[in-house]
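Bench notes, afternoon.
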Amino acid sequence: MSEPQPRGAERDLYRDTWVRYLGYANKVGEAFRSLVPAAVVWLSYGVASSYVLPDAIDKGKKAGEVLSPEAGRSARVTVAVVDTFVWQALASVAIPGFTINRVCAASLYVLSTATRWPLAVRKWTTTALGLLTIPIIIHPIDRSVDFLLDSSLCKLYPSVGKPSSS
């Protein structure tokens, strides 16, 4: 799940507990797209998105509780909320959802042109490939979003109180 917490460190509800897995809902939904109605896939995006906003708000509250003479409280809170929301929206919802969608679409296409398997077998194989892809793509996407935001959005932040992504 994540690195072990240092002794006495506060446990992050959104990153150190089962709640984190709500952010994976859309990836699972995309993997099952060929087997379930589109409404189920959209619902999975709703579940994943419902994880992103509370995490951003939580990080803003925590940034507001930090006593610091260097940066204004409202600036720290705004930076924490924006950074977390954008990071989570990209790294947890948009990019992985698109990636799994394309992997599944491509595999279904290849299976339909390269095999004579029954449609049900091709769909289940596509779903399995989509599910197997999830753990492979997570860290590269996280690091890519870190790089993207460090190279763009984070340059706009005040020099004091920059949040740490992911």
